[in-house]
Design goal:
Length: 570
C-alpha cells in the first residue's frame, strides 16, 4: 500500500461513484470535524493516466466534499495537503469495483445506492461468495437490495427522499410497474402503511380479468365478479388454468418477437434488471417476457445480456419459484381451520381442559409467595397443604413423561407440542386437579407491599365467599413479632390474653418479648387448632388503622413503619 500526500487541487471526484446523494448537513458536520482534528483517514485514489493531471477519488468523496466546503468558506486553501493511498494501473472496471466495495464497506450508502453498487459487482462477474466477503452483507440482504431495482422511478425517488421506508419499498417491488404506479399514491398518503397490507393488495387476490393476456373465451372455469362486473374486480377462480393460459400466450408472444430479435426468453418470476443492460441504437438485442408468481405479464425489450454475470450467482439471486400456497392464502386457510378447532373444543370439555392445562404448563409462573417462603422455614398449615398438592401434581405429571427442568413446578417453560403427549395421559380427575392446583398457585394479592383494604378486590371477594379465616392458617411468629416495636408488642400481649404470662413486661427486652410471645402463640395454635389473636390487617379485607374512616378513603400509606423494629434491646 502506497501512501503519499497530494494537494486538494490535485483531486477530483469520480463520475462512477456509486454514491449519488450526499447529505449536506452531514458534509458540513464532517467539515467541522476535519477543521478541528484534521483528516483522520486517507482517501483512496487512482493514479492519473496519460495527459490527466488529477487523481480520481475511488473512496472518500464525502471527505473530499467536506474539504471543498472548507475551501468555499475560506477555511483552507487549494494547497491543503491530503494523505492518499494511490492505486496504479487500474482499468475503469477495476476502479469501479474497488469504489463499489469501498463505499459499501465504509460510506453508509442508501439502500438504492447499495443496490446499484451490488448490481455493478454482479455485472462485473463477481461471484456471490466474494460479494458477501467484500461487502460484509448477507445473501438475504443482497437479494433484498437487488429487489429495489425493480421499483418504478417514482417509487425509487420516494425511497431516496425518505417518503416511504425501506420495508414498504421492498414490498412494493413485488408488483408490476402498473401495480406500483397505482399503489404508490396510497402508500404516500398513508392509506396503506404496513407491509402486510401492501402485500395483500399486490398478491392477496385471485388473478383478475384485467391481467389476462390470452383470449377470455379459452378459459373454461368460473369467475368471481362484483356488482358492476368491471375487469379489475372480476377474478378467475381457477388459478391453475389461468396460469397455464398466461404461459401459453406468453410463448406465442415470444414466437412473434423471435422474428425480429436475436434472442427471446420467457421467465417465470420477477425480472432481474441487473442481468441486462439497454441496447444502443444499431445493436442486436433481445427480449424478456416475465410472468410473475401471481400471473402478471411484462415485456422487457431492447436488452443486451451482460456476459460477465456469474451463472451460479444468478441462480442464487433469482427469485424463488411460486409456491402453491402464498401467504395470503395460507392466512385464509389457517383462520378457517382455527375456528373449526375452536368450535370442536367448545363441544368437547375434555379436550378443552387438556388445552387449558397445556397453556398453563407451557409458560407457568406461580405467585411470588412461593419464592418468598422458600427463603426461610416458615411454618404455615396453608403453605404446607399447597406444597403437598403441588408435589402430587408434579408426581402425576412426571409419571406421564413431564420433565420439570431446573425451576421446578413453580416456574417453567415447556414446548406445547411435547406437553400434549403428557396431558393426554392424565385421567379426568388428574386433569381437573392439575388445572385447579396450578390456577390456585398463580393467585394471590396483586400488590404485596400495601394493605389490600378494598372489599371489591378479587382476592378479598374470593376469601369472603369461601370463609377464609386467618386464625386457622396463621399465628404470630418471630418474623412478624420482631417487626413490631415494644409498645405494639405490649398491646398484642394484652389483646391475646397473655398478660399473665409476663410478670412485669416493662422489664423485658424487646428480643425476649418476641421469643416468648412467639412460643406462646405457637403452643396455643397447636393445642387449639387456631390462633389466639390476629391483627386487623390479617382480615379480608384488611383494616388499616392508619387510614381515616371519615367520609371517603384516603390514599393508602405505603410506609411499612419498620422504624426500630429490628432493635433487640429497647
Amino acid at each position: 500500500m502506497t501512501i503519499q500526500t497530494v494537494t486538494l487541487a490535485q483531486l477530483e471526484a469520480s463520475a462512477e461513484n456509486p454514491r449519488k446523494v450526499f447529505d449536506e448537513t452531514s458534509i458540513i458536520g464532517l467539515a467541522q470535524s476535519i477543521k478541528a482534528d484534521g483528516l483522520l483517514q486517507n482517501l483512496v485514489v487512482a493514479k492519473p493516466k496519460g495527459r490527466a493531471k488529477k487523481f480520481t477519488i475511488i473512496s472518500g468523496e464525502r471527505r473530499f466534499r467536506a474539504m471543498q466546503h472548507l475551501l468555499s468558506q475560506g477555511e483552507i486553501s487549494q494547497d491543503f495537503t491530503v494523505p492518499v493511498e494511490v492505486k496504479e494501473n487500474l482499468t475503469e472496471e477495476e476502479i469501479l469495483r474497488i469504489a463499489t466495495i469501498e463505499n459499501v464497506q465504509r460510506e453508509n450508502l442508501s439502500p438504492l445506492e447499495e443496490a446499484n453498487a451490488i448490481a455493478a459487482l454482479v455485472q462485473d462477474g463477481e461471484k456471490l461468495v466474494e460479494i458477501v466477503s467484500k461487502t460484509g452483507l448477507s445473501v438475504t440482504t443482497i437479494k433484498r437490495r437487488l429487489s429495489l431495482l425493480n421499483l418504478v422511478e417514482a417509487a425509487k425517488a420516494a425511497l431516496l427522499n425518505k417518503e416511504i421506508d425501506l420495508s414498504l419499498a421492498e414490498a412494493l417491488s413485488i408488483g408490476t410497474s402498473e401495480q406500483q404506479n397505482e399503489l404508490l399514491g396510497d402508500v404516500l398518503n398513508g392509506w396503506i402503511d404496513t407491509v402486510s397490507d401492501l402485500k395483500e393488495k399486490l398478491v392477496g387476490n385471485l388473478p383478475s380479468v384485467a391481467d389476462a393476456i390470452f383470449p377470455k373465451e379459452l378459459y373454461t372455469g368460473t369467475y368471481t365478479t362484483d356488482l358492476f362486473s368491471e375487469d379489475k374486480t372480476t377474478f378467475f377462480n381457477d388459478v391453475d388454468e389461468f396460469m397455464a393460459l398466461q404461459l401459453a400466450q406468453a410463448e406465442k408472444w415470444a414466437e412473434d418477437y423471435r422474428k425480429t430479435r436475436e434472442w427471446v426468453e420467457v421467465i417465470e418470476g420477477r425480472f432481474s434488471p441487473w442481468q441486462y443492460e439497454e441496447a444502443e441504437e444499431g445493436q442486436t438485442c433481445g427480449t424478456v417476457i416475465s410472468i410473475s408468481n401471481y400471473g402478471s405479464v411484462e415485456v422487457h425489450d431492447n436488452l443486451l445480456k451482460i456476459s460477465k454475470v456469474d451463472e451460479d450467482t444468478t441462480k442464487v439471486l433469482r427469485e424463488k419459484p411460486a409456491v402453491t400456497y402464498p401467504a395470503p392464502l395460507c392466512r385464509y386457510m389457517s383462520m378457517h381451520k382455527s375456528v373449526a378447532v375452536q368450535a370442536a373444543l367448545i363441544a368437547n370439555p375434555r379436550k378443552a381442559m387438556e388445552l387449558a392445562v397445556i397453556q398453563k404448563l407451557s409458560k407457568y409462573k406461580a405467585h411470588g409467595l412461593h419464592q418468598y417462603f422458600a427463603k426461610d422455614e416458615t411454618e404455615s398449615p396453608a403453605l404446607r397443604y399447597v406444597e403437598e398438592q403441588a408435589s402430587i401434581v408434579l408426581e402425576t405429571l412426571e409419571s406421564c413423561g413431564f420433565k420439570k427442568g431446573e425451576r421446578g413446578v413453580l416456574s417453567f417453560f415447556n414446548s406445547e407440542e411435547k406437553l400434549y403427549d403428557v396431558v393426554i395421559g392424565l385421567s379426568d380427575a388428574q386433569l381437573t386437579t392439575t388445572l385447579l392446583t396450578l390456577s390456585a398457585m398463580e393467585f394471590g394479592q396483586f400488590s404485596s407491599d400495601v394493605l389490600d383494604t378494598k372489599s371489591s378486590s378479587l382476592m378479598n371477594r374470593f376469601a369472603v365467599d369461601m370463609g377464609v379465616n386467618m386464625q386457622h392458617s396463621w399465628w404470630a411468629d418471630e418474623d412478624f413479632l420482631r417487626r413490631r416495636n415494644k409498645i405494639q408488642l405490649q398491646k398484642i400481649i394484652n389483646d391475646a390474653g397473655f398478660l399473665s404470662q409476663f410478670a412485669n413486661v416493662v422489664d423485658y427486652k424487646k428480643g425476649e418479648i418476641v421469643k416468648k410471645l412467639a412460643k406462646l402463640f405457637a403452643k396455643s395454635f397447636s393445642e387449639n387448632g387456631h390462633s389466639q389473636w390476629v391483627p386487623e390487617a390479617m382480615q379480608f379485607p384488611a383494616i388499616n388503622p392508619d387510614k381515616s374512616q371519615i367520609g371517603t378513603d384516603l390514599e393508602e400509606d405505603t410506609d411499612d413503619g419498620l422504624g426500630d423494629d429490628f432493635e433487640d434491646d429497647e
